[in-house]
Amino acid sequence: MPELPEVEVVRRGLERWAGGRTVAGAQVLHPRAVRRHVAGAADFEARLRGRRFGPARRRGKYLWLPLDGGDSLVAHLGMSGQLRIQPAGTADEKHLRVRITFEDPAAGELRFVDQRTFGGLSLHPDAADTDCAIPDVLAHIARDPLDPAFDEAAFHAALRRSRTTLKRALLDQSLISGVGNIYADEALWRAKLHYERPTATLNRPRTLELLGHIRDVMHAALAEGGTSFDSLYVNVNGESGYFGRSLDAYGREDEPCRRCGTPMRRRPWMNRSSYYCPRCQPPPRPRRQKPKK
DNA sequence: ACGTTTTCCTGAGCGC
DNA sequence: TGCGCTCAGGAAAACG
Question: Any idea of the CA torsion for A234, A237, A240, A246, to the nearest 10 degrees?
């Protein structure tokens, strides 16, 4: 389950191993892996041939490689996606979905491997109305907290304006991108905030503190060289990262809170789970709807 | 227009 | 041994 730091590691790997190279051919082995390329697998393959990759870019968990001529190859790893550079002739992975070969085959081929096929590749033109070059399909994705241009004031204003709850807001890609279930729980634990706290109750310093914790937990992951929760994630060099040792909240049901020792809790939340410390992160007092007599 | 729910997909893990 | 069930996850479509 790659989160933003893992995706950043993949970006760096793509930049080093695919940037500047020219595509010899592309082979789609599973149509679902290119389902977001609406013109279809054959079109995807045809339009990649002969194109040269520019420097790899990222926003949130989306990756893209600009192509000479204007479009970009957009990638999302989903839950189980991997991008790997493999020597030509290496046995196909069981869940190999797309293979991209280059005009300099000695430097290896690019493979998209994805067991659960939530991820995928597609080609898109750049958005016309943005100051920075970004594929049109990503124009609605907010900047991520590691982006120097992330607008903290606008994020705080959005929290104040909205009537939603904290974790929902953290996972809302139009407000802030790149925060997944794991790091949302980690950052909320660090900030001692409950996941169902109404966003409008945060004052500015509290919002900034929460953003600081999000960045801290992501930087910590990056410092470990890109991390992951299980072996499904592999970076472009085929090395798997692991951040499990550093998790303070996610997956720690019934284990003692590392701050106060209280057993951590897990609660069902939006068809998944939220982990929190009931003492450090007390639930918000239910808003009184109508004063009962 | 907004917030919420459902959907997509596969394999690991579990109870029986 | 194997069946059927639950769970995991991001993001977009569908729903209210």
Answer: -110
Q: Are A226 and A6 in contact (CB under 8 A)?
A: yes
Kindly list the structural domains of chain A, giving each domain's residue range(s) and its CATH number in brackets, ordered by start: 4-138 (3.20.190.10), 152-276 (1.10.8.50)
Angstrom distance, A13 CA to B7 C1': 32
Alpha-carbon gap, residue A181 to A152, rounded angstroms: 21
The protein residue nearest B3 (Cα–C1') is A164
CA A268 to chain centre: 22
pLDDT at A244: 47
Closest by CA to A14, choosing from A102, A124, A96, is: A102
Least confident of A53-62, A257-266, A279-288: A279-288
Active site residues of A: 2-3, 61, 272
Strand C proximity list, CB < 7 Å: A 1, 3, 60-62, 76, 78-80, 116, 118, 137, 140-141, 171, 173, 177, 180-182, 229, 250, 271-273
Within 8 A by CB and 6+ apart from A12, the residues are A56
Is 0.85 surpassed by the pTM of this model? Answer: yes
Contacts of A18 (CB under 8 A, 6+ apart): A53, A56, A65, A85, A110, A236
Q: What is the pLDDT of residues A162-182, one digit of tens each?
A: 988 999 999 998 899 999 888
Q: From the CA of A283 to the C1' of B2: give the distance in Å.
A: 25
Distance in angstroms: CA A93, C1' B3: 41
